[in-house]
Design brief:
Quinone Oxidoreductase, Chain A, domain 1; 2 domains; 12 helices; alpha/beta; seven-stranded mixed sheet; Rossmann fold; six-stranded parallel sheet; 17 strands
Amino acid sequence: MNLAATMQAAVFHGPHDVRVEEVPTPDEIGPDEVLLRVERSAICGTDLHPYEGHMDLEEGVILGHEFLGTVVETGDAVGQVSAGDIATCACAVSCGACYFCRRGEPGRCAGIRMFGMGMALGDLSGAQSEYVVVPYADRNLRKLPSDATDSQLDSLLLAGDIITTGYEAVKKAFRPGDVVAVVGAGPVGLCAVMSAGVLGASAVVAVDTVPERLKVAESLGAVAVTPKEAEDAIADLTDWRGADVVVDAAGHPDALTAIAGYVRMGGTVSIPSVYLQDSLELPWGNFWLKGVNFTMGVTHFNNSMDEVIALIRTGRLDPGRIISHRMPLSQADEAYRLFAAREATKVILDPRS
């Protein structure tokens, strides 16, 4: 490699303190690893957990886990990509060899690691930077078509996290013709809305308090309502049964409490949101009486990414349309402020501008 000794990266220094700094450029890769030159990365809702002080993260971590880029160098054991290929990556990388991976449950991998989330999640340097090292590359990278348009690349960037998260959250709880309610119309919620439509929902309800987000959900075909309107709207759509599937894309205990009134008897609550609390107060008696099913946890990215990429390539899914801001990496601090203030729906960071 003949790269500069340092690169720019968005570095975490504490709540509401992200700084773009010069850090060492990666100069070594292992046999199963790839060095990727980042062409674009995104700020994810999960990044806000440490940014807003809800999750402990050590100072000095390079942030970012949603990205695509160009392969610069591959380890000797890598066979699926070559230098010059454009690729996107699962945000949570799995080993492929442990008990859970062998069972087809990569989201539960015994050695799961997540870019830019510190020691607690595998100490992988993040991708809000000029370069990033990807481990288990043959398993976790997806080579992208060389003829992908710029707008398609925006959508394909999101295949490593939010669109696959939203898609799987619906699919694993869903039968065609179901009524789906999505609580929280942020990026993951909007991805769940568009996924429910592609999968064959008879109706989709999006619940949020932010008018701009509700407008986007409505443009995606959802019935867009506030929490005060949600229970009546769902009842009207379902002859008072309740929604067959409710996706919690809000990640707040109040959302789960409200969901008890949205879901039908025997329905399913799918929770892709990250909950860090040790315990929650919930209307458990209501859930129990209804016989509600719950499904939650880290998305099985390696199970769903190829399907999502194919749907993006054919134009059936277009998550890039939720991108509201495009900013240079050098303005990452302002990008985080906008995203945390809900003034941006989805922010793309460009390390090349």
